[in-house]
Amino acid sequence: MKRLLPIVLLVLLAPTMAFSQGFLQVSSLTGSAELRPAASNAFQALTTTTRQVQVGDQIRTGPGASVVLTLPDSSYMVVSENSDMVIQDFWSGGIRSTVNLLIGRVRFYINKLGGRPNPYRVQTPTALIAVRGTIFDVVVDPSLFTEVRCFDGQVSVESAGLSDREVILNRGFHTLVSPGQYPMPPVPNDVALAPPVRTLPVIKKGQDREDRMLDPRGLEKMIRDNDRVSRPSDRPMSPASQTDGNIGRAKPSVTFP
């Protein structure tokens, strides 16, 4: 029995050991997609000859495209069209973060280890999703709202930066996380959520798409830059005028239905 113990442990830890090396298999590619390797600043075409992606690599898909990425434990994710994501690999609270979805849609199919889903987590600009279920969708729209839909098992959702409250999604339920807000109470997948008015962040003219999406300060920096720099039409203030560092002052916005 003692001789079998190291073998059993090796089998159980093999997926973790493999993923710690930072490799995900590219199992399928449809349509046009791009890859920016971790050691590069430039995107290149992702082709059917690409077998693996590594931690730090960024993938973005074009219209009508999809990419299937497989983890070492045979769990996999389907990256839908017009999506942008970064491969991650770090532990936090006993959970391994796998990807940072910047925008778009990804469906996850998570395998079970010992009768329970493997401890993975997905990050977005506004939410942290811990895997308690086996099949779920994560969607990030241009206004940085994150929607999570659970199709099997359970999924834990909390707001980035507001970790004192979480929402547990059971099978057939979804929730929405808006920037700086707690997740909305779950409702069935066939029931529409009633979010507040969505506001698209106004980006400083000339700023690269990937730079603004990867900026860890995210939406706050976008608003601050726009408020303080991108307002050449403002009339000069009189000597008696006063101002402060309030980034909520006169923020231009675009309404998103």
Structure report:
The chain has 257 residues and is mainly beta. It has two domains: 15-188, Jelly Rolls, CATH 2.60.120; 198-230 and 246-256, no CATH class. It is built from three helices and 21 strands. It has a 17-stranded mixed β-sheet that branches. Strands 10-11 form a two-stranded antiparallel ribbon. A hairpin with a 2-residue loop joins strand 10 and strand 11.
Provide keyphrases for this structure:
single chain, 257 residues, mainly beta, Jelly Rolls, 2 domains, 17-stranded mixed β-sheet, two-stranded antiparallel ribbon, 3 helices, 21 strands, disordered C terminus
Mean of residue pLDDT values: 75
Tally the beta strands.
Answer: 21
* N- and C-termini, Cα separation: 63 Å
Q: Provide the β-strand percentage band.
A: 35-45%
CATH-assigned fold name of the largest domain: Jelly Rolls
Q: Quickly give the CATH architecture of the largest domain.
A: Sandwich
- Tally the helices: what do you get? 3
Major sheet: size, sense and barrel closure?
A: 17 strands, mixed
Secondary-structure element pattern, one letter each: HEEEEEEEEEEEEEEEEEEEEHHE
User: In CATH, what is the class of the largest domain?
Assistant: Mainly Beta
Residue ranges: pLDDT <50 for 5 or more in a row? 4-21, 212-257
Helix residue percentage:
10-25%
Structural class designation: mainly beta
Tally of domains: 2
Cα Rg: 21 Å
Indicate the overall shape. Answer: globular
Concise summary:
This protein is mostly beta strands and 257 residues long. The chain is 13% helix and 42% strand.
